[in-house]
Design a protein that fits this description.
By secondary structure, the protein is an alpha+beta fold. The protein has one domain: Jelly Rolls (Sandwich). Strands 1, 2, 3, 4, 5, 6, 8, 9, 10, 11 and 13 form an eleven-stranded antiparallel β-sheet that branches. A hairpin with a 2-residue loop joins strand 8 and strand 9. It is globular and about 55 Å long. The two termini are 26 Å apart. 37% of the residues are buried.
Length: 252
C-alpha cells in the first residue's frame, strides 16, 4: 500500500460492511445506556489493515511527537492525609495530531491519504451506526503509536469546559498492532470499579467508547528480542453528537 483509500469503507470486511448498512447486531450498541465500551473483531479486513500499518511505519513514524507525562512528585509529597491521592492523567505515547494544518506529521498524513480517509463519509457513518444516533459532521482525528512500555494512566476523558462535549461523545479507535507486540490491555470501569479488561493488541481490532468512561491502557509488552519493532498504532475519530464542535486532546 502506498496510499490510504479515500473512503474508510475500503478497509471493512463483510461484518463491517453489514454494520455500515445497518444490518448487524452491533448497530446502535452504544445507544444502550448500560453499554459504554465495545471491542469488536472481524469488522476490518486483516490484510488491508496490515498493509496500512506498514505504510504508517515507513512514512509517518519519523514525524510523530512524543508525549511523556509522568506522575508528578507533588502527587505524593504534597498529600495532606492517607489515601488522599489525586492522580492527574499520566501517559507515554507518540502522536500525530491534525488540529492544525501545518508541520511534517500533517503534511505526511495528507500525502498518504490518512487524513482524507479519517475524514471520509463512510468513517462518519460507521461511527454513527455504532453510536445509534446522529453525530456531528465535523470531528477530531488523531494517530497514536504505542511502543514498549507506553501506556495511558487512569482517566475518563470528560470535557466539562466544552458545552458541546460535557454531556458525552463517541470515540472510535482502529487498532493496528504489529506482530512483535505480545500484549496490551484496556481496563475500564463498570459500576465504579475497574472490573473489565479487553486486549487491544489484536490486529485490526475496533474499540468504541461512549465517553466519559474511566479507563486506562496498560504498558505495551513486546515479544522477547523484538522490542525495537514492537508498536501498536491507533487511528481515531472523536465524534460529538449533532450540533456540537469536535472534541480534542490525546486519547488512549
Amino acid at each position: 500500500m502506498r496510499k490510504f483509500p479515500a473512503e474508510f469503507e475500503s478497509f471493512l470486511g463483510p461484518a463491517g460492511r453489514r454494520l455500515l448498512a445497518g444490518d448487524s447486531p452491533l448497530a446502535g450498541v452504544l445507544a444502550d445506556p448500560r453499554r459504554r465500551f465495545l471491542a469488536g473483531d472481524g469488522l476490518l479486513d486483516p490484510a488491508k489493515m496490515e498493509a496500512a500499518r506498514r505504510l504508517l511505519e515507513r512514512v509517518l513514524l519519523p514525524h510523530l511527537s512524543r508525549i511523556d507525562r509522568p506522575i508528578p512528585p507533588e502527587a505524593t509529597w504534597e498529600m495532606k492525609e492517607n489515601y488522599g491521592e489525586l492522580l492527574p492523567k499520566t501517559m507515554r505515547v507518540s502522536t500525530a495530531t491534525f488540529e492544525r494544518r501545518r508541520g511534517r506529521a500533517w503534511e505526511t498524513a495528507e500525502a498518504i491519504g490518512l487524513t482524507t480517509m479519517l475524514r471520509s463519509a463512510s468513517f462518519h457513518e460507521f461511527a454513527q451506526r455504532l453510536a445509534g444516533r446522529t453525530l456531528a459532521r465535523h470531528w477530531g482525528i488523531q494517530a497514536l503509536c504505542y511502543g514498549p512500555g507506553d501506556y495511558a494512566g487512569p482517566h475518563n476523558d470528560h470535557q466539562p469546559e466544552n458545552p458541546a462535549a460535557r454531556q458525552g461523545y463517541i470515540d472510535i479507535h482502529l487498532s493496528l498492532a504489529g506482530p512483535a507486540v505480545a500484549q496490551q490491555w484496556l481496563v475500564y470501569a463498570v459500576a465504579g470499579h475497574f472490573t473489565k479488561i479487553e486486549s487491544v493488541a489484536r490486529p485490526g481490532r475496533v474499540t468504541a467508547y461512549r465517553l466519559p468512561l474511566w479507563h486506562y491502557t496498560t504498558p505495551l509488552v513486546a515479544k522477547r528480542g523484538r522490542e525495537h519493532e514492537a508498536r501498536r498504532w491507533v487511528l481515531l475519530g472523536t465524534f460529538l453528537y449533532e450540533h456540537g464542535e469536535p472534541a480534542s486532546g490525546a486519547r488512549s
